[in-house]
Amino acid sequence: MSAVVCPKYGPPEVLEIREIARPVPKDGEILVRIMATPVNSADVRIRGLVVAGFMRIVMRLVLGFNKPRNSVLGTVFSGRVEQTGKRVNQFKVGDEVFGTTGFQLGANAEYLVVPEKGCVTHKPVNASFIEAAALPFGGQTAIYFLEKAKIAERSNPRVLIYGATGSVGTAALQIARHYQATVTAVCSTSGRSLVEELGVADIVLYDQEDFTKRPDTFDIIFDAVGKTTKQQCKHLLNPGGRFVTVDGLDVAAEKKEYLEFLRKLFENNEYDAVIDKVFPLAEVVAAHRYVDTGRKKGNVVLVVA
Length: 305
Ligand SMILES: NC(=O)c1ccc[n+]([C@@H]2O[C@H](COP(=O)([O-])OP(=O)(O)OC[C@H]3O[C@@H](n4cnc5c(N)ncnc54)[C@H](OP(=O)(O)O)[C@@H]3O)[C@@H](O)[C@H]2O)c1
What we know:
By secondary structure, the chain is of the alpha/beta class. The chain is built from nine helices and 14 strands. It has two domains: 165 residues, Alpha-Beta Complex (Quinone Oxidoreductase, Chain A, domain 1); 108 residues, NAD(P)-binding Rossmann-like Domain (Rossmann fold, 3-Layer(aba) Sandwich).
């Protein structure tokens, strides 16, 4: 099968498409024929080992010292169940699924083996494979941090999303709205129309206005891009308010229940898969170069089949 192989940490050009052996599912595992798989900010960080200071050592220990231990990149997938191992109960051949592999990687390939009890479930019935591949990364991260800020326990919360146009930001806007939040989004002028399309009216353009000088206050401030600090905006928090950020040591959990929640939102038309660009698998280097800019809007997806 074809797979995106990362033989060493480095720039996008280190990546190669190679023919490798197709995995075989063991007991309790499913073999997924991958249809689409995104290139997200985590993938480019892993490829380039782009982490600062002490975390660089942690990343090497977790992922592999000079190259990823699993040299096939990719953390998110959508596809069809091709084969099931023994004692698989939740899936059958032909089921359309989506999921994540976390630090196990391996999703930028034609086939992937995952445990049925892992982070995989049936994809939304109304989502294309490309859309389904665009849901988990930003979606799971946004759910995790908004849960941490106890969004479900707040009544009609006022929520500010800083960095509203990335994969995490676009997900956060939509999840906050599900909780009846009044949302203020901070983005650049080039992101304004996207944020408006996602239903947010109160927008601060960071290239024209300093959001920290606004008179409004919020129950939750979520930095979805890791470019502000609690220090800069704590005066904007209501009593009992929470500042949460993707920047720091806290790594968002990946859970089957998060995928099921995203499926429900998508099927209820409460959630859009925001897709910036789609590349064929063979153009993975171009996809990584684009994601490396840090300027993508929403998600970038590789089509595999
Ligand atoms: N802790 C965790 O568990 C976790 C999980 C997932 C992601 N992350 C981290 O979260 C960050 C965001 O991830 P992502 O996948 O959403 O990234 P992304 O999609 O690559 O984010 C790109 C977006 O950020 C916007 N942006 C860039 N600079 C900005 C600034 N100074 N102010 C506001 N917006 C800005 C860009 O819009 P403009 O160019 O128009 O400004 C672009 O739309 C990454 O650093 C990632 O590593 C952490």
